[in-house]
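Late entry, written up from scratch paper. The run itself happened at the end of the previous shift, but nothing got recorded in the book at the time, so transcribing now.
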Amino acid sequence: MTEDQSTAARRAAVVPNTGEEQKRQAEQSRETELAQPVGPLQTRQGNTTINETVVQKIAGIATREVPGVYAMGSASQRAFSSISERIPGSRTNVSGGVTVEKGERQAAIDLSIIVEYGASIVEVSQMIRRNVISTVEEATGLEVLEVNINVTDVHLPDDERHDTEEPAHTALQ
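Output as recorded:
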């Protein structure tokens, strides 16, 4: 480095940039930030968007995988689902009891569940959160900020017997 170059380098380090130079540098750094990929769904080659229903289905399936979860949704949602599933050609609703708020890179998930009698609600909730967060993040690349769980009922063993028994008929003779 020549003496003139070293003097210029020292002067540049000591003399602050003018207001115009600072604006230009700030603008260049903003442009550089915008050009950088923000996450696994935003790349230089293009962006991937994921519909909320996709996240709902993934979260619903992940919740149902957890031992101690009897069903999902409220009583009215389950009644409607059971009727609609009897229609030929209909599909099982795996996103029932799941609400999702999703942004470009993050999601928040609300679940309504019914637990099996005897299962620890605390343990079931912890397992659900672990499973839903890991499954959704792995499948979608979205960061799951929170999983809120609303336990709407407890399934009792006697409930199942009453559902399968035929109503008692009284015969008058």
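Confidence is low (pLDDT under 50) at residues 164-173.
(Scratch paper discarded after transcription.)
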